[in-house]
Amino acid sequence: MLNSPEKILPRVSPLRDIAIQGRFGASRTAPGVTFTVRHPLSIISVIARAGQGSATAAALKGYNAQWAGPDQYFVLAENLGEGALYRDLKAKLAGVASVTDQSHGRVVIRMSGPRARAVLAKGTPVDLHPDQFPVGKSALTQMAHVGVHLTRAADDAYDLSVFRGFSESFWEWMTEQAEEYGYQVI
Amino acid sequence: MSSYRLDKGGLIDRTTELSFSFDGKPFTGHAGDTLASALMANGMTLMGRSFKYHRPRGVITAGAAEPNALVELREGGRKEANTRATMIELYDGLTARSQNRWPSLNFDVGAVTSLASSIFVAGFYYKTFMWPKSFWEKIYEPLIRRAAGLGTASRLPDPDKYEKAYAHCDLLVIGSGPAGLMAALAAARSGQRVVLADEGARLGGSLLHEREEIDGKSGLDWAAGVLAELASLPTVTLMPRTTVMGWFDGNIFGAVERVNDHVAVPDPYEPRQRYWRIIAKRAVLAAGAEERPVAFGGNDVPGVMLASAMRSYANRYGVAAGRSVAVFANNDSAYRTARDLKAQGVHVEVIVDSRMDASADSAGVPVIRGQQVTDVSGRKGVTGIELSNGTHIDCEALAMSGGWSPIVNLACHRGQKPHWDKSLLAFLPPDNGPGFTVAGSAAGKMLLSECLADGAAKGAAGGKPVAVPNCRDEGFAIAPLWWVKESHGKAFIDYQNDATAKDLPLAAREGYRDVELAKRYTTTGMATDQGKLGNINAIAILAEATGRSMDEVGTTTFRPFYTPVSFGAFAGPFTGHHFQPVRKTPLHEWAEEQGAVFVETGLWMRSSWFPQDGEDWLASASREVLATRNGVGICDVSTLGKIDVQGKDAGAFLDKLYCNTFSTLAVGKARYGLMLREDGIVYDDGTTSRLADDHYVMTTTTANAAKVMAQMEFAHQALFPELDVTYVSVTEQWAQMAVAGPKSRATLQKIVDGLELNDQTAPYMAALEITVMGGVPARLFRLSFSGEHAYELAVPADYGNMVARAVCQAGEEFGIVPYGVEALSIMRIEKGHVAGGELNGTTTAGDLGLGKMVSAKKDFIGRMMAQREGLMDPNRQCVVGIRPVDPTDRIRSGAHLLKRDDTPSMANDQGYVTSVAWSPMLDMWIGLALLANGRARHGEVVQVWDGLRGARVMGEICDPMHFDKENKRLHA
Amino acid sequence: MLIPCPHCGTRPVEEFTFLGDASVTRPTTNDPSSMEQWYDYVYLRNNPRGRFDEYAHHSGGCRSWLVVTRNTETHEVYGAVTARDYTRAKGARA
Ligand SMILES: [Zn+2]
């Protein structure tokens, strides 16, 4: 028995054959947008139990915890083995918060570049002005009829986390919106 | 002069020649032209025919309100009907056609209706074509449509892209004339986020066509300076070619940006139009004012146009409306036309002013005071005018001005009404509070200095004021003049719908005194221009005819959209394969490899059947059933809703949600649950497993997954907030496959890590957390929907295809088959398991034969209402099995059940068939049905009446469980 | 229309699903004599002109059930609270 199946049984992203690397759309200028599929990723849903909101927030210090609703978070990490982050948080938050593994259930697309905000404006009603939506802030919204967990990762970089089943459809729609600015997939 | 292009002047680029065609004839124009100005420069004053009388028509305006010069623009899939030539930017290769003419614009057969026009009076359609009723659809309407009709839509798909987008701002300024520019400047200088939108191709509003002096500069230069400052600020977004067309609740504005309407073919990566939703903290409407026509005989002859339009063509486009022109007005502003045209070298014959006391500067042009133009001579073009004193004056064009109407449309989109100002002779916008103010001439400021100051004040809105520049003002004086009653010819009020001034008193006489009724009776204001030019005149005439004031008559309702919006803009990118998103299961790739035919279930793509060698769906599904029941089959059930429920009160919460009890479920076990609505009707069903004391995972049907989640959220947050429970959808985290059939255990045993599967380690309804394939985490449920010894295996989604392939490999020796939802459905009907057809929003637990599940020991959603007499009635329709008496007969879903000897009629209805399947095990069609008092009627022979298809067969009522009644296979 | 979600900030109404009158209270008893209360709770809804408390689910956002107070005549939105707080406040009043 193997404790870490990823070593021999690699996780397969649903966008493996969809998010083809290259340069697409208008090519008059440097690409306005860059897309990357962040995979594999550990994504753990943490929801505070009754009255444990602040205890949960405190326990998540030091983790990459993104707001995902009232007293709810997605904790993200790269390069951890299957279930490792889940087991870690489950042990740490026992009785304080409900911990659920969503690593395979969501696909995170990183969109960056000078026109990233303009592309997002074609989908979300969230005001993306830095005063309203600073780096590190997350929002739950809808784009092209798909629920999106949106996080500003940097001044001009955003993470878009969607349910896995919609990822292909969403990818096609999102990249089409970026065509006029030219985009690259890396 | 073969060309009407003036030698100099205008904001056109005379060095750039653009070719275009109108009605197939080639022409040229310049960059900066509109189609209207380019046609006029070529001497083409006739641009269309009117809707009802097919009268020759030319441009009336130089802007968005144009009612006459409507053309079909472009060709093929890009063809767009009813576009306004005055708003179409000329581009090289433009093609346009006139509308409402047959066979040609110059010779139109339909114009004979004009000769018979006395019968075409108001209400003509209602009066004439009412009888006989049957003639309307077949004869009258097609006839009218062919003879009149507006432009035709293309039947080809539109090849261009459309987009939607959101914008946010502190201040939205609508209109970029003097007031709009000042408003934007005031807000922008104090650091606010400003969006400045204007429907025009170029920002500047009236400064583009009026000769003004501001800050010691020409109005044009001043505007350029302000625009340069605005463009330099990162907080300002300038949006030319953008029509703000609606004001909606929450200060949200709809706007259409014509990104690429000014080119023949858009860049393939760019949209033609972009539909904006602008969420504005504040908005300033600075849309300006619309000049009004005057109603007199022949006020529609090509060459008659608004005075402001005529000087716009001269000043902005360098085009003369005629070699000699006359001006007819009731106010001072039209004198500018005489002066500007004269300055451009156009001969101005006369100014006819209806006022005796007019004193504006005519720059030497003779003024005839106290007279009116009664009629225009000429048919396809103006040849002269007749005055009320009988004088005839030769001219080639006539500029008219009946005053100015503030463009208050947007300010009234949310139901407010404008009010009449007696001195300005104008409806002024209502007070909409600080979130939406109106500035400049849209607010009735008729002087340039007032517009600049008002814009600055409304833009700053009490914040840091901005200096208002000096300017030279024109005077504004006006006296009422709506309709020259001495006219002999037709005096038009609504050009587009051919409504005349006489129609309104007629409507009033016939009882249509209310402005909304008069509008519909005369069709005034009902065309695509929504009466932008004619409505105020119509109200004034109606007021006079009924002895009421303007305010008493009031305006008709202003509704979005300000100007017509294409369907493409509304649809945006959500067409074709983006109409709705597609949802794929984690086993999609595996199913494709297996040759699945997919079916849309909600948004999901589910594998429906897996045909081999040309099988049809029935042959394929039947084979899949047989192979599963005889060996082993694997089915993708990932679409079932899966919800992770945790917390101290997780069991108590589930007890509230389901009519049966889950707090008593043992860890490691699963239980079937039934969820009711609060009215006692069954809502959903599924199995829920307990993984730990405070941890359950529940499943929902595919169809109801989202609704059940919302119901749980409501139950917890709104009804039982005291419960300590959390819930989150894990539908997408797990790839879930049913492995069913007598060889399912042997198959799974080969991939399960370190666990011998038997009735002790994995008994019926077990729910286990295990690993497979050397460490892949998995959940194994011993559940059966098929009635076979069966399991459901869930693994994290990224491993799904790999594990499904491994299961297939493991089952190869047992002849494993993939089966789809068709085979799944056959097997559940064979076993009498209820599904969507029976859980159809009308059935109770008792109706489904599940009455014993309903707990009497606890409160749950639906408990009380389920006890109502009507829901407990033994004569209610309940689930039964049905099979044909003659096994070669086919029973169809939806067929009604009648007593054996009753006449086929809905009056004798006893129930209906909810689900049917061809049972390969029983070799006949079988079904489930809802039948009145059905449980007491097993064995009865009934008629199965399919009135829709005209079929009637005899059926026998039986136990819903058609197959393996003792459930031996489940435990085999 | 814009709804001020206490969790997400101001969002357009398209992100919300409405469920009508929030003033109704689920009876706390299953006693047969309470049937009239249950009928009222399940079937009777106010539809006033003017100020109205309405259940709204932020289905396109944080998935919280809210109670939005708006004017049915003018569409003015006065505010929104979580259904949880609204229910607790109702319980405290009762
Ligand atoms: Zn929210």
Describe this structure in words.
The complex is a heterotrimer of chains A (186), B (972) and C (94). With 186 residues, chain A is an alpha+beta fold. In chain A, strands 1-11-2-7-10-9-8 form a 7-stranded mixed beta sheet. The relative contact order of chain A is 0.24. Helices cover 18% and strands 35% of the residues of chain A. Chain A folds into 2 domains: 103 residues, Probable tRNA modification gtpase trme, domain 1 (Gyrase A, domain 2, 2-Layer Sandwich); 61 residues, Alpha-Beta Plaits. Chain B is α+β, with helices and mostly antiparallel strands and 972 residues long. Chain B has 7 domains: 154 residues, Roll (Ubiquitin-like (UB roll)); 204 residues, FAD/NAD(P)-binding domain, CATH 3.50.50; 110 residues, FAD/NAD(P)-binding domain, CATH 3.50.50; 63 residues, Orthogonal Bundle (Arc Repressor Mutant, subunit A); 152 residues, Gyrase A, domain 2 (2-Layer Sandwich), CATH 3.30.1360; 84 residues, Alpha-Beta Plaits (2-Layer Sandwich), CATH 3.30.70; 99 residues, Aminomethyltransferase beta-barrel domains (Elongation Factor Tu (Ef-tu), domain 3), CATH 2.40.30. Helices cover 21% and strands 27% of the residues of chain B. Chain B has 23 helices and 50 strands. In chain B, the strands form 13 sheets. In chain B, strands 8, 9, 12, 13, 14, 15 and 28 form a 7-stranded mixed beta sheet that branches. Chain B has a 6-stranded mixed beta sheet with strand order 41-42-43-40-34-44. Chain B has a 6-stranded antiparallel beta barrel with strand order 45-48-47-46-49-50. In chain B, helix 5 runs parallel beside helix 9, helix 7 runs parallel beside helix 8 and helix 16 crosses helix 21. The radius of gyration of chain B is 38 Å and the shape is elongated. Chain B starts with 12 loop residues before the first strand and ends in a 14-residue tail after the last strand. The model of chain B has no long low-confidence stretch (mean pLDDT 94). Chain C is globular and about 45 Å long. In chain C, strands 3-4-5-6 form a 4-stranded antiparallel beta sheet. The model of chain C has no long low-confidence stretch (mean pLDDT 95). Chain C has one domain: Folate-binding fold. Chain C has 94 residues and is of the alpha+beta class. At the A-B interface, strand 3, strand 6 and helix 4 of A face strand 8 and strand 31 of B. Bound molecules: zinc ion (ZN).
